[in-house]
Amino acid sequence: MREQNLPGAEQLAAGLAASALLSGIGAETLSVVSVERRRMVARVGAALLHVRWFVRAPVWLYRARLGVVFGSPLLMIEHTGRTSGLRRYVVLEIVDRPSRAATS
Q: Which of 10, 58, 83, 103 is an S-S bond match for 91, by CB 3.0 to 4.6 Å?
């Protein structure tokens, strides 16, 4: 399994190392524990993505007018099925992408 680079991971690691030194725990021990904890969180997160009610929860919250719980980077789209004619809902995350000038 490939480990992901999370925002602020360096700051978190530095804080954990500092607290380890203050508490007398070896930095190596703390490093192993934090890596195992991140792997466990990643496994639980991956498993939750296969649970339909969990993945569809944002749609239910948006339809109940509780979209403010997630903040602004999410958008709910309602559309009509082409052949069924049923209303369909999807919640999408809005993500910035770097400009072409920055990638060149």
A: 58
Tokens 């369909």: give the residue: 88
Work out the burial of residue 62: count CB atoms within 10 Å of its CB; fewer than 13 is exposed, 13-18 middle, 19 or more buried: buried
Lookup: tokens for 75: 């958008």
Q: Does pTM surpass 0.70?
A: no
Q: Which has the closest alpha carbon to 9: 30, 36, 35, 28?
A: 35
Phi/psi at 67 (5° precision): -65, -20
**pLDDT one-digit tens code per residue, 64-92:** 988 888 877 888 899 999 999 999 999 88
Domain residues of the chain, as ranges?
9-48, 52-103
Q: What is the C-alpha separation between 4 and 45, in angstroms, rounded?
A: 13
16, 34, 53, 56, 100 from 10: Cα distances, Å: 10, 12, 34, 33, 28
Tokens of 98: 């770097």
